[in-house]
């Protein structure tokens, strides 16, 4: 069977005007998690970037309860559990300080017990992730993993462990779905020179006794980066990464040794053999190359080879999806997929019928989030997504079709004020077809408007999808056309698209961004005299190079957490780059600092800082280790000598990207003022 998907539907068909909230769930969606808000003339920055009022919503394995993170009026975050049959009835299990601690994840262990992960957001934090477990009645709370690197109590593996926290370097990775109180955790193995782990090992942890046991018996390959378990929680597939090469190993459930089933260059993302999931205990599904794109194949474990034809292919896109597994039958019921937008393909007739009923009632893209016992669950959780409204959550009763809204992530957003988002492809100057998302302001215009090219980070990742994007929505609400190219060198659009960006930082990758702006001008959307460029990380680098390379096109720039010098990426003593990345992947994607000195000079903004004359807003986290602060401070000193319109903001308690609410609000208020002053008119 081959399921062939391209775009989920033509972009115009996905535009759902939401001038009124749908009647069935409107009252609860509008006010379940926050007081009703008066409609402002323009939604404030906080409406987009405050910590969500509702998030991490997850259904219990049998569907009797739903857990969620809720932001209270006092700014604290609470973890609540509610009965799905009566969502008004529930209890608060924990409350955390939203300023210094965030809720990173909530996950069910069994029907009576759940786990949650907290992340310390404080200045110079020596913490990683703290893991807890608690019963739904609030009893037997256990602190399972301490995220504090200074915590010196190490819990040895074995049966003699008492009730003891594990140290930083352990991390929750998944449930076991067997009704027990166990979870799966990974322990990172470290070398003596790097902060980043060089390998890992998988364990089961009992969340009541805190007893730690190996997840399997026997040896394991070196340098394991990824683990895959079957639907019984048994490790079956691992991937190691050594000298730029990714190798996949497989074992039968009771084997003590591993068999090499594939090996290839890690950066060949469009052609690389990538294990995805098990369906039952004997069917392994993988990504593999098909007509220049990654497609989903079944891997025949008996014959140790791929089936001749893919199960799912998505022409124009690499397969990107996740299975929906029923842990009673241990079988796949459907697939979540992303092409230009999210969609769901159901193999189960009953759930396909549920999807049709939900879609008929709720405009948008509705993702049914099944419990572990999906087929038997009387109630389903639905996450509704559109381009003009943040995620909303609804409980759907299968027997009656009744829907009850739980709330919205950002209830202060009014869909009628939000712009429409659409997907296109344009021709770059060398003829390459480049995917792009465009968000237009909601207000009608008499002619072209100011525009911003918003560049994603990575860069070897996919930038986004059609659904809600807070940054694009915010900029469009301020009257800007937002252009988000999926430039060459990014992932998700075929192996050739990815490879075409190797060693093209500042060159063809940069030209794709300029070509996107000029294409938007030709569409009549963008005013050629009022185009800005902005982005974070690689997007920050591209912003600076865009201002330098195309000064006649880009009038202003905003760069945060951005790379400013290619050579410094390889030499900074503050960087968290591993020897593996420095020696292989970075040299493949960016260039070789030993042999490409001229390329690094030509395409490093720091080396050409005096050429940048336009207004520039720079921002950086003081504790950034991915792109250390010296990138920003060196560049600012160099550009400021010839450009009084450059400004640098340093956030003392931030790392690579903004984690804290006050930083997000401060930064985007500055962006709003900066663009209003320098670009809008």
UniProtKB/TrEMBL annotation:
Q: Where does the record place the Peptidase S9 prolyl oligopeptidase catalytic domain?
A: 468-680
Q: Name one GO molecular function term.
A: serine-type endopeptidase activity
Kindly indicate whether the keyword Transport belongs to this entry. Answer: no
Q: Does the keyword field hold Cell wall biogenesis/degradation?
A: no
Q: What EC number(s) does this enzyme carry?
A: 3.4.14.12
**Annotated signal peptide:** 1-38
Give the record's keywords alphabetically.
Hydrolase, Signal
Pfam families of this UniProt entry? Answer: Peptidase_S9 (PF00326)
GO terms for biological process, alphabetical? proteolysis
Judged by the first EC level, this protein's enzyme class is hydrolase
Write down what this protein is called. Answer: Prolyl tripeptidyl peptidase
User: What species is this protein from?
Assistant: Duganella phyllosphaerae
Q: Which gene encodes it?
A: ptpA_6
């Amino acid at each position: 069977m081959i399921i062939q998907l391209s775009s989920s539907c033509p972009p115009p068909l996905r535009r759902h005007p939401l001038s009124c909230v749908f009647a069935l769930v409107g009252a609860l969606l509008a006010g379940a998690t926050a007081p009703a808000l008066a409609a402002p003339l323009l939604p404030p920055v906080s409406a987009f970037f405050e910590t969500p009022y509702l998030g991490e919503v997850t259904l219990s394995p049998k569907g009797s309860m739903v857990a969620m993170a809720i932001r209270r009026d006092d700014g604290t975050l609470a973890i609540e559990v509610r009965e799905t049959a009566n969502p008004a009835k529930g209890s608060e299990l924990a409350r955390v300080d939203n300023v210094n601690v965030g809720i990173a994840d909530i996950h069910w262990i069994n029907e009576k017990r759940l786990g949650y992960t907290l992340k310390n957001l404080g200045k110079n934090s020596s913490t990683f992730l703290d893991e807890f477990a608690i019963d739904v009645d609030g009893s037997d709370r256990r602190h399972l993993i301490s995220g504090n690197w200074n915590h010196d109590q190490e819990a040895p593996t074995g049966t003699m462990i008492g009730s003891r926290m594990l140290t930083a370097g352990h991390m929750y990775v998944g449930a076991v779905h067997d009704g027990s109180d166990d979870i799966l955790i990974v322990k990172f193995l470290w070398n003596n020179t790097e902060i980043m782990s060089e390998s890992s090992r998988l364990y089961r942890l009992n969340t009541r006794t805190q007893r730690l046991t190996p997840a399997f018996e026997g040896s394991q390959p070196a340098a394991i980066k990824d683990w895959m378990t079957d639907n019984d929680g048994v490790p079956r597939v691992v991937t190691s990464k050594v000298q730029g090469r990714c190798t996949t190993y497989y074992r039968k459930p009771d084997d003590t040794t591993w068999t090499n089933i594939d090996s290839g260059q890690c950066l060949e993302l469009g052609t690389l053999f990538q294990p995805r999931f098990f369906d039952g205990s004997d069917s392994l599904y993988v990504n593999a190359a098909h007509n220049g794109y990654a497609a989903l194949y079944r891997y025949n474990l008996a014959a140790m080879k791929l089936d001749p034809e893919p199960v799912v292919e998505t022409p124009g896109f690499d397969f990107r999806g996740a299975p929906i597994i029923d842990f009673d039958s241990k079988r796949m019921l459907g697939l979540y997929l992303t092409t230009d937008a999210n969609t769901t393909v159901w193999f189960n007739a009953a759930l396909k019928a549920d999807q049709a009923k939900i879609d008929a009632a709720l405009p948008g893209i509705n993702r049914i989030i099944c419990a572990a016992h999906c087929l038997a669950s009387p109630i389903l959780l639905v996450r509704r997504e559109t381009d003009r409204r943040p995620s909303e959550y609804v409980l759907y009763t299968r027997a009656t079709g009744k829907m009850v809204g739980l709330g919205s992530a950002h209830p202060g957003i009014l869909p009628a004020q939000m712009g429409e988002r659409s997907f296109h492809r344009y021709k770059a100057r060398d003829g390459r077809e480049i995917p792009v998302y465009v968000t237009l302001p909601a207000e009608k215009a008499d002619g072209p408007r100011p525009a911003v090219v918003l560049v994603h980070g990575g860069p070897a990742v996919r930038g986004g999808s059609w659904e809600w994007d807070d940054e694009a929505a915010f900029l469009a609400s301020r009257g800007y056309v937002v252009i988000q190219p999926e430039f060459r060198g990014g992932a998700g659009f075929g192996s050739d698209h990815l490879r075409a960006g190797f060693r093209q930082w500042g060159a063809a990758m940069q030209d794709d961004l300029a070509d996107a702006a000029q294409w938007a001008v030709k569409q009549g959307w963008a005013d050629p005299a009022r185009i800005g460029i902005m982005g974070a990380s690689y997007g920050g680098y591209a912003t600076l190079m865009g201002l330098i390379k195309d000064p006649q096109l880009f009038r202003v720039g905003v760069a945060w957490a951005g790379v400013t010098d290619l050579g410094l990426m390889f030499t900074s003593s503050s960087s968290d780059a591993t020897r593996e990345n420095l020696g292989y992947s970075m040299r493949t994607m960016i260039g070789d600092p030993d042999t490409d000195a001229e390329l690094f000079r030509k395409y490093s903004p720091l080396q050409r800082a005096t050429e940048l004359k336009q207004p520039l807003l720079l921002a950086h986290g003081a504790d950034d280790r991915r792109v250390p602060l010296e990138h920003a401070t060196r560049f600012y000193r160099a550009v400021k000598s010839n450009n009084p319109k450059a400004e640098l903001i340093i956030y003392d308690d931030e790392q690579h990207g903004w984690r804290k609410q006050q930083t997000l609000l401060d930064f985007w208020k500055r962006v709003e003022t900066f663009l209003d002053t320098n670009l809008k008119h």
